[in-house]
Amino acid sequence: MHKFSMPQWAIDRVMERRGKLHIYDDLLPEKTALIVVDLQNGFMLPEFSPSPVQTAAGTVPNVNKLAETLRATGGKVVWIKNTVDDRSLSGWSHWYNMGKPQWSRQRAETFREGAVGHDIFSDLIVKPEDEIVHKFRFSAFLPESSDLAPRLRTGGYDTVLIVGTVTNVCCESSARDAMMMNFRTVMVSDGNSAFSDNEHEATLAAFYGVFGDVMPTDMVCRLLQQNSGKLAAAAE
Question: CA 141 to CA 114: how far, in whole Å?
Fold first, then answer.
């Protein structure tokens, strides 16, 4: 995993704007969904990627812990699978044309449905009650990318926890869009992974300063357990 501590400038900005370090320390598990972004073979195993995210495997125990805690406290777990098909190749042609032809072909082959690279990494624990959503852009929250946002709203979820890879690409894109679609959004600092500590830190600091909250796994799990049942008690 990454060595990470929130830079002081981001902390100062948050305290100036919000007056507290964690604006979402009132997490209600029944209204919270864990969004696991792209933890697939094609991003994590060298045999399926020319440049695997080496820090991604280190986040797996934390992702499993978050998922287990959220299920136990009444929340939802959603596994996001980066997916390429003919529609995405034509509808997002500018992105694929930016890469070398060999790179674009390999990416398309790796992440087509049915390819081994498209599968979720085997050490992750996926349960029958979880949901799996295919996305066709960096962000899982764009209407052109997936139906994740309406699924969450239909289920009554207004808060999302973002984990996965890569911190500063698909995870950041999903987190920012989630916030701008009015979901309370938390990026889990030790549940995300990037190609370098610098990229990881820069994204989490920028997100924390403006868009939402950043917390480590243990803090998120403690808050979910602490607040479990509060929603039902308030309704009585």
Answer: 23
**Two structure tokens written together for 64:** 């499993």
Q: For residue 219, what are the contacts with CB-CB under 8 A and spacing of at least 6? A: 22
Closest CA to 175 of 149, 211, 222, 199: 211
Question: Phi/psi of residue 191, each to 5°?
Answer: -115, 0
- Structure-token pair, residue 223: 């808050």
Is this prediction's pTM over 0.90? yes
Q: What is the pLDDT of residues 8-19, one digit of tens each?
A: 999 999 999 999
For the chain, domains (ranges, CATH) are 8-225 (3.40.50.850)
Is residue 115 a contact partner of residue 109, using CB atoms and an 8 Å limit? yes
Helices (H), 133-213: 148-154, 172-180, 197-210
